[in-house]
Give the backbone structure.
Amino acid sequence: MKFLLPEDDLILEWKRRLVFWSGAISVGIAAILFAVAAEWANGVFHKLLAVSPYLPLLVTPLGLALILFITRKYFPGSQGSGIPQVIASLDPKESRKVREQVLSLRVTIGKIVLTIAGLMCGTSVGREGPTVQIGASIMHKLGSLARFPRHDLEKGLILAGAAAGVAAAFNTPLAGIVFAIEEMSRSFEEHNSTTILMTVIIAGITSLALLGNYSYFGHTSESMGFGKEWYVVIVCGIAGGLLGGAFSRALIEVNKGLSGRMGAWIREKPIAFAAVCGLLLALVGLASGNNTYGSGYSEAKSLLGGNSTLPESYGLLKMTATAISYVSGIPGGLMAPTLSAGAGFGANIAPFFTTVPAGATIILGMVAYFAGVTQAPITAFVIVMEMIDNHEMVLPLMAAAFIAKACSRLVCPTPIFHTMAQNFVYKPPPPKDFGSKTSFIQRESD
């Protein structure tokens, strides 16, 4: 047995710290580069729209079919948001096997490249969910090189990387911490607190150093007093919760596999199904005046700024486009498109409450719909509060988020990301294949 001298312990400890700090910085840099690439991809697609608004009828179906083919053949485990994969990797029963698939360098590269490709084709996806998987992958890989204790490697570092991914992607450090607590682990262990906090801080400093101090959706000073105006909080909470729950329930049911001929055709012809999804995306884009493509960042910002020319149906169309993009099976996140759709729903509610500033109602719509989709109310109101740089709306946002979660559970009893995580598990092969290797089951690819 080899015993380490105190000097050896000190050297090993500093080695771990250096790898840990470099990992946190790497997550911040990766998130920034991913953000820049995503904006570039969105710009490329809008140049295509400038040539002709009908080009997506050809480009989007072909693009989605090609992306799904590459995903299934070369990057299995990279499809979808990325958050379910990280949640699955934290499963104490399956984590070792799942991590080998979903937190590998190959999958990380595929996630980045294919999400960018999806944005170039006009999909309604975001980069924030994929950044969670990227951050977790970076910390997991560097942690294994530094020989961190097993407990930290299996949970603490993965949680820290995921939290840093959210913090760097949205420039919301507090939301990154809350996200790790509420959404990723649904619990919080004091043993991991320092790891998560330090990773988020370092990743946040990296983002600030390279991009400066900015708010994701800008700044709004609009607020609301306590009293009759709070009726809008209840309405937004109920509407956002029910709509978000219906959205999540629909994705879960499709992900389980539809019955009948349609379900059989989707399972047998997934590439053709992706092409059909691409065609539907193009049609929705035309119906929205080319406003449902991409993450929805600029559309939500224009709504909050009060200078939007979006159609009244924007929220519903954005929700539809996001659902189509997700069920197609390609890589891409839900967070930014969900916030954008929520802003659209808030804009629909605003005319009915003329005594409440429209910006305040739009913010409430964002947080309520986001909480309805994720069923993570604390993450919802913290992330929106930090993104808009308005702390005067804390109580209304909090109330709307918790109302939305309660209403969402009436429609969708289980959280979407945790339900989707069940698809990324190992199962033993059937008896007829006895002796073969254990297979990685992805229902989205069945």
